[in-house]
Amino acid sequence: MSASPSVYPEPTPAEMRELVTRIAAEPDSWRHLVRHDPDRRTYEQISRDGPLGLWVICWMNDHDTGFHDHDISSGAICVIDGAIKHERLVIGGEPSVVIYGPGDSFCFDASEVHRMSHWGDVPAVTIHAYSPPLWRMGAYATDDDGTLHRHSISYAEELRPVLPDRRDLRASSTLSGTPKAATADASAIKAPGRRSTDTSSPSRSKPKSGGSATR
Ligand SMILES: [Fe+2]
After folding, report:
1. Which of 42, 83, 137, 144 has the lowest CB atom count within 10 Å?
2. Maximum CA pair distance of the chain?
3. Cα 151 to ligand 1 centroid, rounded to whole Å
4. What would the pLDDT profile of 43-90 be if each residue is shown by its tens digit?
């Protein structure tokens, strides 16, 4: 008797990392979904089946998710084209930062708070796996006094840096508007803080022309 999808085991972050690397090598399944928009990230679901959701996301012009979590979902990401800056939130210190380029991959568990942003001058494409498939996410903002707040948002909303009153989230729910709300930012690139789920090799830093490590 075959098992129903509801009892399929959830893949581990490491298994998802292997999967996104494999899918990256199968462009027939996602290349038609690649579309770059200068004003926002574009994200298209490749599939949502049982315990797994797969996405292709396109980045350019410093597109930035802001710090966020994935509620109960773990995940993995593989970079196809371009480069992505990945930050992990560190309480009491600067974020841990790694720049990932083509062919690099990494994974994370549901407990992590991270941020991704476009890096460099070449539009980027990334493949993402989440398990269970994304439903809710947490977007983080800080008050003037530095108090951290978590805003629960739908997976259908575009993640952006969050203002305390969520003005930017309301704007992004229409998939238009102006991003770049102020939020906690990395003030320096430093050696990556490795986690047990992150066994990838960080790619070479690829500075923006005339830019610095901060954005
Ligand atoms: Fe994320």
Report:
1. 144
2. 61
3. 14
4. 999 999 999 999 999 999 999 999 999 999 999 999 999 999 999 998
